[in-house]
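Recall that a protein's primary structure is simply its ordered list of amino acids. Everything else, from secondary elements to tertiary packing, is in principle encoded there. The following example makes that idea concrete.
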Amino acid sequence: MMRKCYKCKEEKEFSEFHKDRTQVGGISYDCKKCKSEIRKQKRKENPEKYREACRKSSIKNYETIRASQKRHRLENRERILKRRKELRDPRRKEINAREYERRKNDPKHLEKMRIINRRNRDKNKIINKPKTDAHKLVMFAVKLKILIRPKECEICRSDIKIEGHHKDYTKPLEVQWLCKSCHVKVHVKEKNERD
């Protein structure tokens, strides 16, 4: 079945027209293409009216829109992540530089980072207090010649960079003297035993 559009005067299939119950035959008199052009023109002439209508509609249907968006994100998670990565990776350096400049000049961000750093510093002081106290006591004891630092490692007999190792930080003067590599190995072994 064919119908003539009253705007462009062309004969077109019924599928090229919108359904409209108010018109004869239940089909609109102007084709989809012409209707689209008319809407574009109206939107250009009065953009504020359309923006306001869109805003009101989104407020009215907020819950439905949010549910639909959530459903879409869950159903297309892999595709969305892949697309994000494709868009972001080529511009990563540029984005990071721009973000760094924005944050560098943002007083709110600087204040937030100051608070976080202060909190972390205080937290580390509390957690590492026994450890730092034990290290200070050993250094002080070595200075006063209460403890004598040997010239070689107790495990491998190496004489390169001898360090004090505490098995228990509550007993700071019970020190095992190890070279750097043995000290690291002992800590790794202790960590594995704890886990």
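The chain has a mean pLDDT of 89. The first helix runs from residue 32 to 45.
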